[in-house]
Amino acid sequence: MVEKIGFFAADTGFSLTWRKLVAILDTKFFASIYLWFFAIPILAKICAQFNNTITIYPFGSKEGLIITLELPFDWYILYFASFMFLLARLIYSMFCPVFLREFHNAGDAIAKGITVQQIIEQSSDFLRKYFSKWRRPTKVELDNIYRIFEQYRMNGLSIGALMLMGSDITGDQIADEMDQVCVTESSAKPDYYEIQGNTEGSNQVVSIQRNQFIKIVYRDLERFLDITYMHIRMTCTILVLLGILSIAWVSIKSLTFVATTIFT
Predict the structure, then answer these.
(1) pTM above the 0.85 mark?
(2) Is 203 helix (H, G, I), strand (E, B) or coil?
């Protein structure tokens, strides 16, 4: 069973994962709210041309009925909310790993024809670029990387030694190990992969159904990528929360205004 990551769990850096962030940003309401960033200044300019009140004389009455057109909240609050979501969307587009943005889930990846070889190549390229002398793997990241290698039967002496290095390990070392993974199409079974592992120091060939194996390696790679760039995800999370709180404030002010108008 796949261990689920909490909404603001310690292993995510107390911030939303990339998947949870995009789940919020892609909802119909929040997906369009950042457009207010461009629409609100125009609407505010138009509204400024009119008086705050108008007087009407319903049914020929001599006494006028004054209607207030002023909003129960300031435009800048909505503008601030839209700006927060716009920034969050830009950060997500710039830093969320391409693999996560390209495939929504394992089924989507399989439907688009991804192969294990492509997953290995993308994993290797990302690991090499992600870890550097300025960014060392955390314990949670190392655990997820080890889980990835286990699926490829690469849990022998070499990868075990690398894991023991902890924060001293580099992206090139991890990527070099990933490049050693040997997965080929089975000649005996057309819909199967053959994995040439190095479990316990001895070469072993393991056969596994193609789509089943893709789902397994996709899941573990997704889990690792989902918690990358912790500080950037934390920034994005704060922006989203500020945007939601601003909209909540506008909603409360509007409801309070309506309730006051009706019951007073």
Answers:
(1) no
(2) coil
